[in-house]
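For concreteness, we quote verbatim a single protein encoded this way:
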Amino acid sequence: MPKFNLSAYRTAATKKQMQKVGIAGAGALSAAALAFTVVPASAETTTNEAAQAQPVVYSAGQIQNVKADIADQAAGASVKAEAVAAQQAEQKAEEKKAADEAAAKKAAAEKAAKERQEKEASRSAARPVAKKAETKKVYANNLDGWIREALDIMDKNDIPGSYHGLYKNIIRESSGNPKAINLWDINAKNGIPSKGLLQVIPPTFETYHVKGTPDDIYHPVANIVAAANYAADRYGTIDNVNSAY
């Protein structure tokens, strides 16, 4: 009977197992390669899209920081708005103050002007009105002066007559002598002789004497005015007298 060799048997068995493992490994590698080649090209894209489609998850700390940043920005904007509003309010207050001051100054000026006017009016009312000094007209003490003064008095008393009308009658009646007296006509015979520049009898002088002139028949001005007043009453004016009257 032949002798059994255990060592040779183990060696042969080991080789067979290694061959099996090699064949199995090769088959596995072939299957993996085949599986890789048959996977569609869109598989990678799908995988990426799926990865991208997954929601991003933030931590509580990150969310808290974002909220804090937003709150800070809102607070900053609010402070800025408040500052702008305060500046606008201050500007309006300054403008109102300036307008009020201008109005107060205007009112004060108007009040002062009114008070000045009232004071001036009060002083004017209290102050006696100074009468304008009347300049007394000076007349020459001669026939020309007597006639001119008589004409001014006649004008104030609405007695008509002219320089020429007076002058011609004076020359005819007395030749310009204020003391002339007629002692030969009918009046003289009756005891009432004609006297003065215009030869006026005493009763006529007394009747037509003009107030404000001397009550003297021989006074040249008083004689002229009384005679002119009589002539105006009887003839319309001394200018109408051309003879004894």
